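retry 2 of 3: previous attempt timed out while embedding pyridoxal-5'-phosphate. Reduced batch size to 1 and resubmitted. Inputs unchanged:
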Amino acid sequence: FMAFAVPFGSVANAEQLQRGLHVAISDKVRIPPASIDPAIKNYHWLDLVRGLYDAYDRGAETALLLDFNGNVAEGPGFNVFCVDDGKLSTPAVGALPGITRRTVFDLCAEAGLAVAAADVSVAALRQSDEVFITS
Ligand SMILES: *Cc1c(COP(=O)(O)O)cnc(C)c1O
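retry 2 succeeded.
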């Protein structure tokens, strides 16, 4: 068991929080759960770091990696949610079921909003009404 307590931090800086993040869909595949279980918080991040460097090369500010089926997985240190017609979805596979992600599920339950962990295709992500990340 490993635990750490740090002041609140953010993947996005203050400016990015205001205007949004430029995100590149990476061609680097998130390491499969059969190799490293993404449900365990870990710092085996070579796939995420390679995706991030590719994103920088493409003029983006961060990356989203796909799972081995070509669906959206997660980015370096964050989960992603899509909002469509008031319903939220987030990748079920290849992503850390993190505490902040869990909090979105809890808040949706309180607010009466539908939220599901499911396959999220790149096409679905691009067509979403809104996309946000959590970390
Ligand atoms: C820490 C982390 C997250 C976010 O976890 P939360 O506990 O929901 O904030 C998402 N993906 C990866 C790979 C992480 O390391």
